[in-house]
């Protein structure tokens, strides 16, 4: 009996026999022990539970999102470097084929769903309520639930690396390869449940922020007076609301195929694999706009702040954002022009795809003309913004080239495509979120990140990026297709692959510089003297850094899109400070353990489904149900912060307003 | 900042020069050997130029603005903090991309119809049909007219259009010979059509461009293009010297494995058709797999257009479309 | 500014003073608005399932077809029951507006019981199909059928549990702004499921036997 258990653990449960994975297992084990030890030694368990795990404060949830996404960036980045090593020296067989396949699959999933999405949600959480003058998001409880669903979904996905086996059917898992017939292992089940659980969290976040933005704005902030970042979040979240249910259904159907033997996407029984590919891209294409739109918002904020000038063409910008999110739903078939959809369909989707270039191009012009006749300074957030423009313009241009359907027959699945989407995703999304992270960092933590190290990281990232991805365009034209783990030396692909790998390592080095930068800035902590670190324009800069629990002691009244800037201008021109309204008690949500517990239950249930262990599925499902009922029956969910406490807090913070 | 830009710009330009100057033999896509690949290369150049018309000025403008309006002592560039709107300017930069995209859209639409893969290539010569089946992890090519078949190797005569009919035994792959022209997916239960032609004698690289599992990277093949006489001689040679591909032999090939180049003097009757139809039930009602007639598809399509309760009607319609064009071929048998 | 600030009651549901009620009202209407947003996503969810069903509607792989298997009397009974339950949930809301707690609870209970009857009929239909040899794995058509109809059934089941929980809360707390909002939301949800069922009836059953 005991021997059976040991056999099971060594043969099926844990992945054994690969030195890389063994290393990962050991280091995961050690770091878990270290964390537990540290928490116990410093008596921090209670602190962790009450201040973080059960918090419903959007600022803390945002910080947790960001920490998780940086960890995921590390994992996805290591995956990328492993792939690049293999491709630089394919003769060595550094990675075995199935290991390589697992790694490109997890790299894709992690970078999009567990790095870009949470980093984006982290910024939403930290910035949106502060920019619209709200005390929290519309549904703080749901917000916490979203985070924990994401977190445990990501954990479920990541655990497959050391337990049960990684998915290896590509990041979108096309059937029939991802069906039981093509992927009998557990990896694909981890994929389904990991993404499904975190996807529910994303959907909830989408709803939450749409309502927050529509209903929670400070008095006077009409829609057309919202900061551009808030607009971009709105367009992104509306896209989430319409796209994510499709993902939920698609993964659900794949699960039913694999678990109950249904025939949605199977080869036999009348199944239709093409339907999966349509469905997954009906989510997948809007998904890339979901992550890029907020980056556009961030650039708009930063370009205006560091040009000391109003954002140019506000109405055009809003219209562009909204039309991009609308058109993003009508382009999905450009991912499979080569599936013989016929000339009518291909021509239609080629043109809809190109149409997106129009509003995007307009946005670029508006950013440029925001800088035009401005006064430009170049701290790190602005550097990332300026580096973004050429990178994204070129990436967008290759995107338009790919959208030309007959030409795409030659680009499809080649490294040209790989180079294109990395250029828009790194040059657009990653640069954008980095810019946002540097920009709002002082608002989150009350200190700035070290500028010198930040500039090193910036230049290394940029040089590494071009060295890595420009050769990949060439490789695509040389006929190299994606997902090859090896190639023949005669093809002449090796020199450029080596160059590309060097570039990837430069980006890896750049990441280390950022880690160093954060560590250095914490060590030499220098408190920001005011809450207005960058001479900002929007409401978040009008309150202390980090913001107090209730954000605004008095709800601000807004009359322009640069409310804080206008107020500062008015005061500088001899205007009188507005009389302060008397403080009143502030209504706040109470912390709750339920989101954490529901998500743990979901994790247990998902893990049970992966292994088909009823004894885990049933308790997991019951746990979910009990938590939901417990929430339905709890009425004591909020409280008031009394006036004297607000007064004390404000006095301690220096009462900046 | 300035210093970095000065260093970086020439570096980037050099990098691009290195990448682009080598538009020689290695750049398979830019060195086509057939009419389809040739047109696609032209199209790539046209679209690149059209894009550059707008991209290059934007890049220059970016550099100029960043340089001109930097906040530096002695920089007396104008500063207008509240200038945030100009209808005239905005109309200009809404129109520029609209014009470029309109031109591009017209070019694209024209080429899309011209280069539709299932459209026969105009030629005095009758096309040769080759059936392509992607297996895990090898390519099986059957020549129905010659009655021979090969694995991981193609030989074709120069100057003759080739009608490829493609399917897959399992997961979907993509059949790509960059120097002859663009790729097309091979999908189980469907027969796709792709016309290509080689105008020069030579050896061309071919590959499976879509991931199909563990050893898909091994699914490369050589396309040897010879004169028509040499091609006939080769067919004759295979017919007389190579072994036959039996049903068992084929079933053995369908098992996951990596194979070297092989040739066979014959293959089981209707093999390709059987592979296409293997997953389609007795009733043949699986219309989405291309098992029904084109007329039926038309009525189905009308149905779908009525079902406009979701945004997915396009998908359905598209699926139909796809079948329409492949099923016609299939049913001519 | 004033609307975001409330009275001094620490727990917020005492109902003293004008400010407090106003605030609570706003808080609850926010949740109702969010529920509408959720319904939009649920519409997309069902829309996707309907679309897959439509794509696969002839994919019976030579096996049994809908026309051979469907027994319309049961389906019509289900429809009748669900439509009635939608009506009774409407009456419950009317009773709530009249402040009649007993009527409210009673009609909600009737609604839940009708929902249970619906689920009972649906499950029996499924069991009968399985006995006759038609399962989710029979063909793509039946996969789509069981998934679409089953997802609707699952929604109804969740609704029943939720309604039961709400009945208990109403019995304990009476009609307050919070419970009132909850009743409104579940009634919205129930009507929504009714509308979805009409589509199921039309697209799955009626078009299936036609």
From TrEMBL, chain A:
Keyword Electron transport: yes
Species of the source: Paenibacillus algorifonticola
Protein name: Cytochrome c oxidase subunit 1
Pfam families cross-referenced by the UniProt entry: COX1
UniProtKB keywords: Cell membrane, Copper, Electron transport, Heme, Iron, Membrane, Metal-binding, Respiratory chain, Translocase, Transmembrane, Transmembrane helix, Transport
Cellular compartment(s): Cell membrane
Cytochrome oxidase subunit I profile domain boundaries: 43-559
Pathway: Energy metabolism; oxidative phosphorylation
Residue stretches spanning the membrane: 20-42, 63-82, 102-128, 140-163, 190-216, 228-256, 276-299, 311-333, 345-369, 381-405, 417-441, 453-475, 495-516, 593-611, 617-634
Highest taxon of source: Bacteria
GO biological process assignments: aerobic respiration; electron transport coupled proton transport; respiratory electron transport chain
Cited PROSITE patterns: COX1
Reaction(s) this enzyme catalyzes, per UniProt: 4 Fe(II)-[cytochrome c] + O2 + 8 H(+)(in) = 4 Fe(III)-[cytochrome c] + 2 H2O + 4 H(+)(out)
Membrane topology classification: Multi-pass membrane protein
Automatic annotation (TrEMBL), chain B:
Membrane spanning residue stretches: 43-67, 91-113
Substrates-to-products reaction catalysed: 2 a quinol + O2 = 2 a quinone + 2 H2O
Main EC class the enzyme belongs to: oxidoreductase
GO cellular component, one term: plasma membrane
Compositionally biased residues, Basic and acidic residues: 300-325
Primary residence: membrane
Any one GO MF annotation of this record: cytochrome bo3 ubiquinol oxidase activity
PROSITE patterns documented for this protein: COX2_CUA (PS50857), COX2_TM (PS50999), PROKAR_LIPOPROTEIN (PS51257)
Keyword line: Cell membrane, Electron transport, Lipoprotein, Membrane, Oxidoreductase, Palmitate, Respiratory chain, Signal, Transmembrane, Transmembrane helix, Transport
Occurrences of domain Cytochrome oxidase subunit II copper A binding (ranges): 125-237
Listed EC numbers: 1.10.3.-
Chain intervals for the UniProt region annotation (Disordered): 285-333
Gene3D superfamilies to which the protein is assigned, alphabetical: 1.10.287.90, Cupredoxins - blue copper proteins
Domain of life: Bacteria
Pfam families tied to this protein: COX2_TM (PF02790), COX_ARM (PF06481)
Bilayer disposition of the protein: Multi-pass membrane protein
GO biological process: ATP synthesis coupled electron transport
InterPro entries, per the entry: CcO_II (IPR045187), CcO_II-like_C (IPR002429), COX_ARM (IPR010514), Cupredoxin (IPR008972), CuRO_UO_II (IPR034227), Cyt_c_oxidase_su2_TM_dom (IPR011759), Cyt_c_oxidase_su2_TM_sf (IPR036257), Cyt_o_ubiquinol_oxidase_su2 (IPR006333)
Function: Catalyzes quinol oxidation with the concomitant reduction of oxygen to water. Subunit II transfers the electrons from a quinol to the binuclear center of the catalytic subunit I.
Family from the record: Belongs to the cytochrome c oxidase subunit 2 family.
Name of the protein described by the UniProt record: Quinol oxidase subunit 2
From TrEMBL, chain C:
Top-rank lineage group of the source organism: Bacteria
InterPro entries per the UniProt record, alphabetical: Cyt_c/ubiquinol_Oxase_su3 (IPR024791), Cyt_c_oxidase-like_su3 (IPR000298), Cyt_c_oxidase_su3-like_sf (IPR035973), Cyt_c_oxidase_su3_a-hlx (IPR013833), Cyt_c_ubiqinol_oxidase_su3 (IPR014206), Ubiquinol_oxase_su3_dom (IPR033946)
CDD domains: Ubiquinol_oxidase_III (cd02863)
GO terms for cellular component: plasma membrane
GO molecular function: cytochrome bo3 ubiquinol oxidase activity; cytochrome-c oxidase activity
One record GO biological process: aerobic electron transport chain
TM segment ranges: 33-55, 75-94, 103-121, 141-168, 188-208
Annotated membrane topology: Multi-pass membrane protein
Residue ranges constituting the Heme-copper oxidase subunit III family profile domain according to the UniProt record: 1-209
Annotated region described as Disordered, given as residue ranges: 1-23
Location relative to the cell: Cell membrane
Keywords for the protein's UniProt record, in alphabetical order: Cell membrane, Electron transport, Membrane, Oxidoreductase, Transmembrane, Transmembrane helix, Transport
PANTHER family: CYTOCHROME BO(3) UBIQUINOL OXIDASE SUBUNIT 3, CYTOCHROME C OXIDASE SUBUNIT III
Subunit structure comment from the entry: Heterooctamer of two A chains, two B chains, two C chains and two D chains.
Family: Belongs to the cytochrome c oxidase subunit 3 family.
Its biological purpose: Cytochrome bo(3) ubiquinol terminal oxidase is the component of the aerobic respiratory chain of E.coli that predominates when cells are grown at high aeration. Has proton pump activity across the membrane in addition to electron transfer, pumping 2 protons/electron.
Protein name: Cytochrome bo(3) ubiquinol oxidase subunit 3
Taxonomic source organism: Paenibacillus algorifonticola
């Amino acid at each position: 009996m005991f021997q059976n258990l040991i056999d099971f653990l060594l043969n099926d449960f844990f992945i054994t026999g690969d030195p890389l994975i063994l290393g990962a297992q050991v280091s995961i084990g050690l770091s878990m022990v270290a964390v537990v030890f540290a928490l116990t030694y410093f008596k921090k368990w209670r602190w962790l539970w009450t201040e973080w795990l059960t918090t419903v404060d959007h600022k803390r949830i945002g910080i947790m999102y960001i920490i998780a996404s940086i960890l995921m960036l590390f994992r996805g980045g290591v995956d990328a470097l492993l792939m690049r090593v293999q491709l630089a020296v394919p003769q060595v067989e550094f990675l075995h084929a199935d290991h390589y396949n697992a790694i490109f699959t997890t790299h894709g999933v992690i970078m999009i769903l567990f790095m870009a999405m949470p980093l984006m949600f982290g910024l939403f959480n930290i910035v949106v309520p502060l920019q619209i003058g709200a005390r929290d998001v519309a549904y703080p409880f749901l917000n916490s639930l979203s985070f924990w669903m994401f977190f445990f979904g990501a954990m479920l996905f990541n655990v497959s690396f050391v337990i049960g086996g990684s998915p290896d059917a590509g990041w979108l898992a096309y059937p029939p390869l991802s069906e039981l017939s093509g992927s009998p292992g557990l990896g694909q089940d981890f994929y389904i449940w990991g993404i499904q659980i975190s996807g529910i969290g994303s959907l909830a976040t989408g709803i939450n922020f749409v309502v927050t933005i529509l209903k929670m704005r400070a008095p006077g902030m009409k829609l057309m007076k919202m900061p551009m970042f808030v607009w971009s979040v709105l367009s992104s979240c509306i896209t989430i609301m319409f796209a994510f249910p499709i993902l939920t259904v698609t993964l659900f159907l794949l699960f039913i195929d694999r678990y109950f033997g249904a025939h949605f996407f199977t080869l036999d029984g009348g199944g239709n694999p093409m339907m999966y590919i349509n469905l997954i891209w009906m989510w997948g294409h809007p998904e890339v706009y979901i992550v890029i739109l907020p980056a556009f918002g961030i650039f708009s904020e930063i370009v205006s702040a560091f040009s000391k000038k109003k954002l140019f063409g506000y109405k055009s910008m809003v219209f562009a954002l909204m039309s991009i999110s609308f058109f993003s739903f009508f382009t999905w078939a450009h991912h499979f022009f080569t599936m013989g959809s016929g000339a009518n369909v291909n021509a239609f989707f080629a043109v809809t795809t190109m149409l997106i270039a129009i509003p995007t191009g307009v946005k670029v012009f508006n950013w440029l003309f925001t800088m035009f006749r401005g006064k430009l300074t170049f701290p790190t957030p602005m550097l990332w913004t300026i580096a973004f423009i050429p990178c994204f313009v070129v990436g967008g241009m290759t995107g338009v080239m790919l959208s030309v359907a007959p030409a795409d027959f030659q680009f499809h699945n080649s490294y040209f495509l790989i180079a294109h989407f990395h250029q828009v995703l790194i040059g657009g999304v990653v640069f954008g979120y980095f810019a946002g992270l540097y920009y709002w960092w002082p608002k989150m933590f009350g200190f700035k990140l070290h500028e010198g190290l930040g500039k090193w990281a910036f230049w290394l990232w940029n040089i590494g990026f071009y060295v890595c991805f420009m050769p990949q365009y060439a490789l695509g034209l040389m006929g190299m297709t994606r997902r090859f783990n090896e190639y023949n030396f005669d093809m002449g692909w090796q020199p450029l692959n080596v160059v590309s790998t060097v570039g990837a390592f430069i980006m890896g080095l750049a990441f280390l510089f950022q880690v160093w930068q954060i560590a250095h800035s914490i060590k030499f902590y220098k408190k920001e003297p005011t809450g207005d670190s960058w001479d900002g324009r929007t409401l978040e800069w009008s309150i202390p850094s980090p913001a107090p629990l209730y954000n605004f002691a008095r709800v601000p009244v807004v009359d322009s899109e640069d409310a804080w800037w206008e107020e500062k201008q008015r005061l500088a021109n001899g205007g009188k400070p507005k009389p302060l309204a008397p403080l009143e008690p502030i209504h706040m949500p109470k912390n709750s353990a339920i989101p954490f517990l529901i998500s743990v239950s979901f994790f247990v249930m998902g893990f049970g489904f992966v292994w088909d262990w009823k004894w885990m599925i049933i308790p997991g499902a019951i746990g979910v149900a009990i938590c939901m009922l417990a929430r339905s029956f709890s009425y004591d969910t909020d409280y008031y912060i009394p006036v004297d406490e607000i007064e004390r807090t404000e006095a301690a913070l220096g009462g900046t307003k | 900042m300035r210093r970095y830009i000065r260093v970086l710009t020439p570096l980037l330009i050099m990098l691009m020069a290195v990448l682009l100057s080598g538009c020689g033999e290695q750049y398979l896509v830019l060195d086509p050997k057939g009419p389809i690949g040739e047109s696609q290369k032209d199209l790539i150049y046209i679209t690149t130029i059209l894009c550059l018309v707008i991209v290059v000025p934007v890049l220059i403008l970016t550099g100029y603005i960043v340089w001109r309006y930097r906040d530096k002592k002695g920089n007396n560039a104008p500063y207008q903090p509240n200038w945030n709107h100009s209808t005239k300017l905005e109309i200009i930069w809404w129109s520029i991309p609209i014009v470029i995209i309109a031109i591009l859209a017209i070019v694209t639409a024209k080429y899309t119809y011209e280069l539709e893969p299932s459209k026969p290539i105009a030629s005095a010569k009758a096309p040769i049909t080759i059936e392509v089946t992607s297996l895990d992890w090898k390519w099986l090519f059957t020549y129905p007219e010659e009655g021979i078949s090969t694995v991981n190797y193609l030989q074709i005569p120069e100057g003759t259009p080739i009608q490829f009919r493609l399917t897959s035994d399992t997961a979907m792959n993509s059949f790509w010979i960059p120097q002859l022209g663009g790729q097309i997916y091979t999908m189980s239960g469907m027969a796709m059509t792709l016309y290509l032609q080689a105008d020069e004698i030579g050896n061309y690289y071919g590959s499976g461009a879509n991931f199909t599992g563990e050893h898909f990277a091994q699914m490369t093949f050589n396309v040897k293009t010879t004169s028509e006489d040499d091609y006939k001689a080769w067919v004759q040679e295979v017919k007389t010297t190579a072994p036959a591909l039996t049903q068992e032999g084929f079933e053995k090939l369908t098992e996951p494995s990596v194979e070297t180049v092989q040739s066979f003097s014959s293959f089981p009757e209707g093999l390709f058709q059987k592979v296409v139809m293997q997953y389609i039930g007795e009733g043949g009602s699986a219309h989405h797999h291309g098992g029904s007639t084109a007329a039926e598809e038309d009525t189905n399509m009308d149905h779908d257009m009525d079902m406009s309760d979701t945004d997915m009607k396009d998908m359905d319609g598209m699926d139909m479309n796809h079948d329409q064009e492949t099923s016609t071929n299939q049913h001519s048998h | 500014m004033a609307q975001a600030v409330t009275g001094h009651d620490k727990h917020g549901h005492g109902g003293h003073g004008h400010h407090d009620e106003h605030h609570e009202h706003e808080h609850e209407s926010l949740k109702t608005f969010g529920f509408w947003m959720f319904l939009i996503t649920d519409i997309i969810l069902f829309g996707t399932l309907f679309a897959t069903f439509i794509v696969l509607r002839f994919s019976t792989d030579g096996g049994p077809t809908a026309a051979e298997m469907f027994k319309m009397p049961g389906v019509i009974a289900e429809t009748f029951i669900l439509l009635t339950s939608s009506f009774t949930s409407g009456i419950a809301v009317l009773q709530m507006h009249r402040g009649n707690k007993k009527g409210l609870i009673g009609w909600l209970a009737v609604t839940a019981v009708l929902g249970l009857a619906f689920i009972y009929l649906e499950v029996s239909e499924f069991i009968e199909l399985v006995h006759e040899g038609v399962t989710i794995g029979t063909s793509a058509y039946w996969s789509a059928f069981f998934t679409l109809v089953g997802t609707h059934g699952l929604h109804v089941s969740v609704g029943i549990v939720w309604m039961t929980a709400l009945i208990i809360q109403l019995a304990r707390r009476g009609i307050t702004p919070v419970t009132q909002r909850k009743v409104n939301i579940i009634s919205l949800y129930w009507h929504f499921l009714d509308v979805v069922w009409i589509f199921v009836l039309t697209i799955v059953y009626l078009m299936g036997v036609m």
